[in-house]
Amino acid sequence: MSGNTSFFERLRVELRDALELVLLPWLAVLMPWDVCFALFRRMARWDWLYRESCEEALDEARRRGALRPDDEERWLYEQRLVTLVNHADLYLSRRRSDAWMAHWLDVKGEWPPVSKEAGVLCTFHYGAGMWGLRQAAHARMRANALVAPLDAEHFQGRSVRWRYVRARTREMARALSRPVGEASKSMRAALRVFENGELVLAAVDAPTNAGSGALMQPSAHGLALLQLASEFKTPVTVFSTLLDLNTGRRTLRIEQVCGGGTAISVEELTARVFAHLEHLMRRDTAAWHLWSEAERALVR
Q1: How far is it, in rounded angstroms, from Cα 277 to Cα 269?
Q2: Closest Cα to residue 72, out of 41, 47, 49, 37?
Q3: Both ends of the chain: CA-CA distance in Å?
Q4: 143-147 and 180-182 as β-strands: parallel, antiparallel, unpaired?
């Protein structure tokens, strides 16, 4: 009986992952984006959609004082909608041209000048980030992304999710036309990129422990990267890609926080970078993607 229960439970989980990570987001490839986004807005009203992750996200956000009790219904709606669009962007990035991107993506600010100078591009797990990568490549940024190591053991019994995560990493590399490396405490991959006069790109955010006095702080690899940027006096640029929840348009915001060549302490550099995330979180905490994984993402 227990064997049968285990089999059917895994089947239920795999089918749900297939629906939420592949089938529903794939609809974006089959229809015009404005029509699909209107459909996605209706889907985001479905309480069962992404229920497990959204309920965990709500619990974490509530525990960390990131929303008001009377705002929970709106917050869950926006969390589901941003999640659905974020998954759809994997397939859209594969299938849509730069002309499509130019039509649906507004760009505010400028990337650093194309050069052979090393630098750092910082972003956050917020909004519709895939299009920031696409636009960076379009602007000829030689950006090498660093991501947290993928561990298959974290995906035991969830082969659909495991394949989705690997597909997303491959699409990051394709979108950037540059390799994606695994971050480590030693930052050897970042050092090699610096030596080649190229850019390191990484999402640097993680939630802190409750009561620490701040909602967000650098992740372990984010802190190591900012330490390197401080030591090497490299330019640092922050970018984020926001989603308009009414129209489905994306807005890429780019701002240089450090021009390079000047000694800036890691503390000051971290404060400048995370001032941008604080602004985003004041705008809407529901658009941050790591709430349901907050405990695993905690700074250690």
Answers
A1: 13
A2: 47
A3: 41
A4: parallel
Q: What are phi and psi of 24, to 5 degrees?
A: -65, -50
Reduced DSSP (H G I as helix, E B as strand, rest coil) percent helix, strand, coil of the chain, to 5: 55, 15, 30
Query: What pTM was estimated for this model as a whole?
Result: 0.91
* Dist. CA 241–CA 251, nearest whole Å: 5
Contact between 250 and 104 (Cβ < 8 Å): yes
96: tokens are 């849509």
Looking at residue 98, its amino acid is D
Residue environment code for 49-62, b if the CB has 16+ CB neighbours within 10 A, otherwise e: bbeebbebbbebbe
**How confident is the model over 121-172, as pLDDT tens digits?**
999 999 999 999 999 999 999 999 998 888 888 898 899 999 999 999 999 9
- Cβ distance 120 to 222 under 8 Å? no
Amino acid at 272: R
**Number of other CB atoms surrounding residue 220 within 10 Å:** 17
3-state secondary structure (DSSP) of residue 172: helix
Q: What is the pLDDT of residue 163?
A: 96
Neighbours of 1 (CB within 10 A): 5
Sequence-separated (6 or more) residues with CB below 8 Å from residue 182: 146, 147, 148, 149, 150, 189
Helix 130-138 to helix 72-95 angle, to the nearest 10 degrees?
40
